């Protein structure tokens, strides 16, 4: 045995000798005997006249950037946490304030934590940049109810638009082009476009700190569930391909459960015009989807007349197009993330 070890892993000759007859384990260890950057642990011992060999195979020791969280600025740490703990499910949370003003906003600090009773928790954390709180938190402190709407790929652009920080009292349902549905057991509205909606009573709010980045865990007990039958399989379970969920990752990345990662530019720091400001003939298009409208609504200004006229001179084929054709051309530009050209086509 020791000749083999000496030949293949380079054990020095005097390290392979155990005292015979020892019933308790005698061992040698050779911690660095294979190549730079690798480590092999070997233990050989004799027990009841039998020799036993334990070998930990070589592994590569990677270069690690190690730090204590308190040594990093909160924004930097926030980015590492979100980049590494991903993908994260999205709670598209609908709330209402004491005056009855609706609000809907997405949060990816979210998951399910039990089924009996059914408990979900999400966290509208304090803003890292200025330590302010979000309207969702303020609303559930006033009215302890929330609807958690899940997010499918078909509504993700509109959902992203709703995360724009509109002033308090602005209805994000309207800005993002979503349909409000009355709930059965709680006051906040449901998002009709969401394939599954959970009406919840808020059981507790756990405040983890008072500085920017601190979490505010909203513990909700599900009191009513609504599932669109279109996402159900034949056996009544939720078909994961049909529901087509999306999740958040680091930066501007999302993950589509059935297809993998994709990217959505974060909403403008300035306010987008919103879907509600899009002309009705475009908003009610039979060609453009909710995602398309979400992209169109996430601009702060529309191209001016000169820009549209110059574009038309460069693309005379658009000047004679009817509405459906223009919408089709615009959709092609949106597929390339060229929102400005899409708007120019629509405004010709």
Give a concise summary.
By secondary structure, the protein is of the alpha+beta class. It has helices at 2-9, 74-84, 135-142, 156-162, 172-176, 240-243, 280-283, 290-297, 305-314, 323-335, 339-347, and strands at 38-47, 50-60, 88-89, 91-96, 102-107, 110-115, 118-122, 145-149, 180-181, 190-191, 196-207, 216-227, 246-248, 253-256, 260-263.
Strand residue content = 25-35%
Number of helices in the DSSP assignment: 11
Query: Average pLDDT, to the nearest integer?
Result: 87
Radius of gyration: 29 Å
- Characterize the largest beta sheet: strand count, sense, and whether it forms a barrel: 7 strands, antiparallel
* Strand count: 15
| CATH topology name of the largest domain | Pnp Oxidase, Chain A
CATH homologous superfamily of the largest domain?
Answer: Electron Transport, Fmn-binding Protein, Chain A
Helix-strand string: HEEHEEEEEHEHHEEEEHEEEHHHHH
Q: pLDDT below 50 for ≥5 consecutive residues: which ranges?
A: 11-37
CATH class of the largest domain: Mainly Beta
Q: What class would the helix/strand composition place it in?
A: alpha+beta
Lateral arrangement of strands in the main beta sheet: 5-4-8-11-12-7-6
Binned, the helix content reads: 25-40%
Overall tally of domains: 3
- What is the CA–CA distance across the termini? 84 Å
State the shape. Answer: globular
* CATH architectural category of the largest domain: Roll
């Amino acid at each position: 045995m020791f000749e083999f070890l000496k030949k293949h892993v380079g054990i020095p000759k005097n390290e392979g000798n155990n005292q015979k007859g020892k019933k308790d384990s005698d061992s040698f260890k050779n911690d660095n005997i294979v190549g730079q950057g690798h480590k092999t642990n070997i233990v050989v011992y004799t027990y009841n006249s039998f020799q036993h060999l334990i070998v930990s195979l070589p592994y590569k020791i990677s270069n690690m950037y190690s730090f204590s969280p308190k040594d990093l600025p909160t924004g930097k740490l926030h980015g590492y946490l979100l980049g590494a703990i991903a993908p994260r499910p999205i709670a598209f949370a609908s709330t209402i304030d004491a005056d009855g003003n609706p609000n809907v906003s997405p949060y990816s600090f979210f998951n399910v934590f039990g089924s009996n009773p059914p408990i979900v928790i999400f966290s509208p954390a304090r803003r890292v940049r200025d330590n302010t709180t979000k309207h969702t938190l303020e609303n559930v402190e006033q009215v302890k109810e929330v609807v958690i709407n899940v997010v499918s790929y078909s509504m993700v652009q509109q959902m992203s638009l709703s995360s724009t920080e509109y002033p308090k009292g602005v209805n994000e349902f309207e800005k993002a082009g979503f349909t409000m549905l009355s709930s059965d057991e709680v006051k906040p509205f449901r998002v009709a476009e969401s394939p599954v909606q959970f009406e919840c009573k808020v059981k507790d709010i756990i405040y983890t700190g008072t500085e920017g980045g601190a979490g505010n865990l909203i513990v909700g007990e599900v009191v009513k569930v609504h599932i669109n039958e279109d996402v159900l399989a034949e056996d009544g379970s939720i078909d994961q391909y049909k529901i087509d969920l999306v999740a958040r990752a680091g930066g501007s990345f999302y993950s589509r459960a059935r297809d993998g990662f994709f990217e959505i530019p974060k909403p403008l720091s300035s306010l987008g015009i919103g879907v509600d400001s899009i002309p009705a003939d475009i908003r009610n298009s039979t060609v453009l989807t909710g995602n398309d409208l979400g992209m169109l609504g996430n601009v702060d200004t529309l191209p001016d007349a000169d820009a549209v006229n110059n574009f038309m001179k460069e693309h005379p084929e658009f000047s004679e197009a009817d509405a459906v054709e223009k919408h089709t051309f615009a959709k092609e530009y949106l597929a390339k993330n060229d929102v400005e050209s899409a708007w120019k086509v629509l405004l010709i």
